[in-house]
Amino acid sequence: MYVGSQRIAIVKPETARSFRVVAENAPTALKIANLGAPQVSRLGEKVLSDWVSQAIDMINADALAIHLNPAQEVFQPEGEPWFRGVLDKLRFIKKIANRPLIVKEVGNGISMEVAKLLATKVSPDAIDVAGTGGTSFIRIESIRAGTTDEANVYSGWGIPTALSICEVRSVYNGVVIASGGIRSGLDGAKAIAIGANAFSMSRPLLLAALKGYDETRKFIGKLLREFKIAMFLTGSRNVDELSKAPVVFGPTIISWLSQRNIPCKHIRRFA
Ligand SMILES: Cc1cc2nc3c(=O)[nH]c(=O)nc-3n(C[C@H](O)[C@H](O)[C@H](O)COP(=O)(O)O)c2cc1C
Q1: Taking the domains of the chain in order of start, what are their residue ranges?
Q2: 3-state secondary structure of 164
Q3: Hey, whose CA ends up nearest to atom 17 of ligand 1?
Q4: Which residue, 22, 35, 133, 155, is the most exposed by fewest CB within 10 angstroms?
Q5: CA-nearest residue, atom 6 of ligand 1
Q6: Largest CA-CA distance found in the chain, in angstroms, rounded
Q7: Which residues form the pocket of ligand 1, taking CB atoms under 6 Å from any ligand atom?
């Protein structure tokens, strides 16, 4: 379980309670702390260390995620599009966090070039592609800001999740998490077959959670069944076998991969 950006809880400690409930109510779940790249890139090392430990301690986190969200910041009314020096800050966080580091997007995808920079300069433990196809912060923020014309121009911006998995996997040997528009266990199974190690989703779970505990439990059960059916039908005894299941790409993906010089065979067999 990722939590949302914890900046608010650090700046306004009276709001930290809404994060602490995660540690209190989900002691055995995998919990992932979360901070934004624009904020961490502007902090000096001493304050940054303090933010990182506060974020981790607040939810008793097993891992720490830093989100890269340039498109969101551009459209956000109170946006902070500050990314200068972010790679150095990520490298510093990796050194001090004492937890696995996940670098993620928020719905516009991570490119091969960014993944290569991350792999060589930061060496994160995981990259969550969070590609386009699901929740769009360009839309959300522009509706809040009342600038829907610009958002319409940029509504298609980003790298679709399936392609972002291929892009990242072609240059990065760590854990790849698929997210952005994953809506069923079958979507998750496909993501794993083309190179992701795990998948996650936000919107559908939030919608279920709004209806309550039983609905959320039911949704997760359905998701797992859908995932297992895909494994059964492809003859995959475990997730590792699913990751080697035969895959056929449609023309859009083939064209994208060829323009980006990513050999299809290379993707799934990379690790
Ligand atoms: C209401 C909402 C709030 C979000 N807040 C954050 C956030 O604070 N930090 C973050 O890294 N991602 C955040 N995300 C982005 C998700 O992590 C995910 O990348 C994105 O929603 C795409 O997945 P989806 O299509 O399944 O929703 C948020 C998503 C939603 C729906």
Answers
A1: 7-266
A2: helix
A3: 106
A4: 155
A5: 4
A6: 52
A7: 4-5, 34, 67, 104, 106-107, 130, 134-135, 179-182, 201-203, 206
pTM reported for the whole predicted model: 0.96
Distance from the CA of 142 to the center of ligand 1, in angstroms?
Answer: 16
Tell me: pLDDT of 243 over 80: yes
Mean pLDDT, the chain, whole residue set = 95
CA–CA distance, 196 with 189 (Å, rounded to integer):
9
Mutate to test the pocket of ligand 1, among 3, 35, 106 (most ligand atoms within 8 A of CB): 106
Q: What is the CATH number of domain 7-266?
A: 3.20.20.70
pLDDT tens per residue, range 20-47: 999 999 999 999 999 999 999 999 999 9
The rounded distance, in Å, linking the Cα atoms of 73 and 137 is: 9
Helix (H, G, I), strand (E, B) or coil at 268: helix
Instruction: Tell me the CB-side half-sphere exposure of residue 45, using CA atoms within 13 A.
Output: 6
